[in-house]
# Entry
Amino acid sequence: MKILTVVYDLDKGGTQRAAQNFCEAYQILGFESQLLAMQTGGPRERELQALDIPYFIGLTKEFVEHIKTWQPDIVHLHSHSLACDEVLALKEYCPLADFVETNVFSEPSSYPEDILKFSFQLSEWCRYLYLLRGGSKSKSVIVPNPVKTAQFKQASQKEKNDFRNKYGIPENAFIIGRIGQRHYGKWSHYLIQLLERFLQEVNDQTYLVLVNAKEELLTYAYARNLGHRIINIDAIAGDSELSKCYSTIDVFVHISSQGESFGYALAESLLCETPVVALNTPWSDNSQVETIGHGIGGFCANSREELFQYTKTLFLDSALRQRFGAQGREKIIRDYDYIAVAKKGLQMLSEKQLNTEVNINALPAIQQFHSFRKSIVSGLLWAKFQHAKTQRISNYLLRKIYRHEIFYS
# Structure
């Protein structure tokens, strides 16, 4: 079987990582696997070259001639930034291929849904959003992002000590940390406020490690005289070095105004056996709890106060940190290993899928509410389904319930 993976470029983002992981998994499973980057290349080219995976940049004359001859059986699109006219041209060149997509933003893509056999949604929450935004029940199935689980593991004690020494972190310091994309929606001032309160009320030897943080977040921290407790790392290159960072962090704290559709950083932290505390975000992407597992790889909080208390609990209980780390690693390997995920996606193509509704009350992201508050939240989520005009007010009320403000800095 021949499979063409399509992504917009070969940079280092999560969409590109997912596309490359699928492409590699297809090759390992014994299929002819090739990749098309619609716009530009990038650093992932070197990795594809090392694996002898053929790849192409753009719908060039050379590529069009090649694809008409090669004729893939499956074209796997990664929807982010793919232009409609380019996808339709590809469909014309490959008329017999089954087209599927990994849907990145939980909404119908720029190209017609009817050219797809399936739209892979990354989580139950993503499927809820996809249907909310007009997607097809019969075409939407849950296939998460694939993770190369062998790439991340807990660093040795020596490597952890070396990391602390490199960045001047005392041996007895408690470290909370966050690694993320440099995008305003991926960061929140709450992270700095958490550090400030933790230093005042829990442990005055706490440090916050930030990787790839927004400059505005650092400015906010320095204005509160917290610069001496923040380790700002502009970037970390390579999975091995990232593993050392994740492993040295005691608790990975995820606070993001826009949430996560999957959350590679959450999975990577757990593979390094560092537990995660995350804030639920039902007004936006909200797959955190599905990736982490509340009470499995950490905690998912419904308020800033809960987030603080969960972080405090893990500070006070090192055995619980170790247990969550080990459980979380097992969960990521079981649920998201790239070979198993690729097999699942291919199996979907050969099976008849049920035209299933979304059961809002069963969504994992709202399970740790008490019954009364859960009924309010599920009611607001249901209301979002009814009409476009109700979505904005529902999101506003959800933020009020969760006492969350968005910082646009």
Notes: The domain at 149-336 is CATH 3.40.50.2000 (Rossmann fold).
